[in-house]
Design a protein that fits this description.
With about 190 residues, the protein is α/β, with parallel strands linked by helices. It has a domain of about 120 residues. A hairpin with a 2-residue loop joins β2 and β3. α2 packs across α3.
Length: about 190
Amino acid sequence: MARKKRSGGEVSAGSMADIAFLLLIFFLVTTTIASDKGLAISLPPKPDPNEPPPDIKFNERNIFKVLVNSQDRMLVEGEPMNDATQLREMVQTFVNNNGRDPESSDSPTKAVVSFKTDRGTSYERYIEILDELQGAYYDMYARRMQLTTKQIREISEQEPSVQDEYKELKKEYPMQISIAEPSKTGGGN
């Protein structure tokens, strides 16, 4: 009797492709992709072209001015400043003045923080300064409500009574940060 030669076993590649495809779909469905949320800034509505722009006049003492040039140098109320972390305290003092200092704001509702940059200002510097300006208000809110700044920033997760108190506080201390159109004098960024 002659022995037959046995050939080596073959593995079906068709089922491997099915398994790989199912694994791919599984990972696509279960993976969360982090997406940048950007800056949480509400833009004003577009003006009605049929109406003339409103004539808004502010008392100069109610405007806290922060200017940043194309070399990322900062001018605060006409004085040069390097350290952006000093802005928080300065903004809080300005907003909470209530007419005591004749060179500062009349009241928190009239206080406006004006932030103007140059086209050449770096994004890092822009974000750093904007964060300090907004942080000044969040710190004031936190102090008034006896919460941490982190709890204030996550106010939507708080109970409704805390949310209502926060809304009332924002009416007393509105976050009025005016971000002006950048100047076109600097380099490109």
